[in-house]
Specification:
mainly alpha; Multidrug-efflux Transporter Regulator, Chain: A, Domain 2; 3-stranded antiparallel β-sheet; 3 strands; 64% helix; DNA-bd_dom_put_sf; DNA binding; MerR_fam; MerR-type_HTH_dom
Length: 142
């Protein structure tokens, strides 16, 4: 099942309902059953779904409607997929080399003040959050 997801940051429940061709009450039910699914809420308690939420919902619909999984079976399958994805991510990360005492002494002496990998990751995440907050603010003000 391939559905084109529009290039937007957030989607209201009605839009998601149309994209996935399911009723809004089905989406609300899935949200209560699949704890991994947590759309953002506005102050008016309106659901706003991210693109990742839509992808997850498409997978849930596929498992339930096409593969004929039960809710419990779909939950289990999603957990397996999540574990598999995190295992693949770990496999892609380069293993840290074990340093000898001499190497660690040299690296401490260098101290080149370059940002660590973790620092740049946090920076990217914060930039993305800032973009999302600006877009959410424009939605709420508009």
């Amino acid at each position: 099942m391939t559905v084109a997801i529009p290039e937007k940051q957030y989607f209201k429940i009605g839009e998601v309902s149309e994209i996935l061709d399911v009723e809004p009450y089905v989406l609300r039910y899935w949200e209560s059953e699949f704890k991994i699914l947590k759309p953002t809420r506005t102050r008016a308690r309106q659901r706003l779904y991210h693109k990742k939420d839509l992808e997850l919902l498409m997978e849930i619909k596929h498992l339930l409607y096409d593969e004929k999984f039960t809710i419990a079976g779909a939950k289990k399958r999603l957990q397996e997929m999540k574990k598999q994805t995190s295992a693949e991510k770990k496999a892609k990360k380069p293993a840290k080399a074990i340093k000898t005492k001499d190497e660690s002494d040299n690296s401490e002496a260098k101290n080149d003040n370059s940002p660590s990998m973790e620092h740049s990751d946090y920076r990217e995440i914060l930039i993305e959050i800032k973009k999302e907050l600006k877009e959410l603010r424009s939605i709420l003000e508009g």
